[in-house]
Amino acid sequence: MENIDIKKIFDSFYQFNILIIGDVMIDSYMWGKVDRISPEAPVPIIMSTKRENRLGGAANVALNIQALGANPILCSVIGTDSKSKTFHNLLKKRELSSEGIIQEQDRITTVKTRIISDNQHMLRVDEETDEELSKSTEEKFINHIFSILETKSVHAIIFEDYDKGCITPRVIEKVVDYANTKKIPSLVDPKKRNFMHYKNVSLFKPNFKELVEGSKIDIEKGDFEGIFSAAQKIHSKLHIEHLLITLSELGVFISSNNSYLTIPAEVRDIADVSGAGDTLIGTASLCLAAGLDQDLIAGISNLAGGLVCEKVGVVPINREQLLKESIEKYSKVKVS
Questions:
Q1: Is 40 within the bounds of a domain?
Q2: Which of 53, 64, 269, 335 has CA atoms 20 to 30 A from the CA of 196?
Q3: Spatial CA neighbour of 18 closest among 274, 290, 238, 239
Q4: Packing angle between helix 276-289 and helix 58-67, nearest 10 degrees?
Q5: Is the pLDDT of residue 314 over 90?
């Protein structure tokens, strides 16, 4: 038996290339002050004081991968509109490669605008399409992904699905088959539309709402035996190795076919839960690539998701803070 060297594990992240496939977007923020009600309708008037654009969706997963020291390779389809230029500028600003990004005239670039006053999230305005890729764009996208997979050493693949149409059943099938042939771990952050198409992946990470909707089983969030029963059915139908379910204030649940583990949420000063799932799956991908067991994958990922909830807005994880907490919590864990 020996102690787990958490710092050594985190240092190993520097060597990993993580391919992220999914729906990217711009998270736009408008901050201001509310001091009166509109005379035109019973709604508050916000005096805008600051605006900011950030990378969101699958791009936020890429930021978390980058923040943890690994190299993200982001693959997505955006429009040719003015917002696509903003998106590319944001990639450049954050020193992220655009090699996996395809632009198509028949798509628009997704923008989510959040209006915030005194740290209160007042309104969100979404500009997007959720139609699946056209057949020609789908083929182009698949070929582009494979050109990257065949020229780079990839240590894990993440499907970051926001139900905006970038991930299709054919994209899933082709990439997962390749990943399994090459023994590359694959992870999924699913949404409802493609929920049952993610067969034979390494790790499947729905939140509780997505689990209930996807499995069509009515269970209570605190009923861990009921969750395990639902999990076993998903394991059986999808042939997945690990099922990692986020339970918000109750922490996380992780299972294989025959056993499960629950890890309670850390006590935090929660400011905003936006982006926590992106952080969690990004962290899980690196833990899986590093060969950690499911207990540590769930534990370290749970810490990471909790840490970003202490910040307002969608922000990537702080590597040093996560390393510090992981050492405090897990450095005394013994392994064979």
A1: no
A2: 64
A3: 290
A4: 50
A5: no
Residues 180-201 have pLDDT tens digits of: 999 999 999 999 899 999 999 9
> What is the token pair recorded at 191?
């949404």
Q: Can 278 be counted among the known catalytic residues?
A: yes
In a domain, 43, yes or no: no
Question: Structurally, how many domains does the chain consist of?
Answer: 1
Q: Examine residue 165 and state whether it is found in any structural domain, yes or no.
A: yes
Listed residue (232, 231, 233, 257) closest to 245, CA to CA = 231
Report, as an integer, the average pLDDT of 135-154.
97
Cα–Cα distance, 230 to 225 (Å, whole number): 9
pTM across the whole model: 0.91
Catalytic-role residue among 81, 278, 293, 295: 278
Amino acid at 88: H
- The Cα–Cα gap between 267 and 221 comes to 18
Angstrom distance (rounded) from CA 2 to CA 153: 30
Cα–Cα distance for residue pair 211/238, rounded to 1 Å:
13
Asked if residue 271 lies in contact with residue 310, where contact means CB atoms within 8 angstroms, the answer is yes
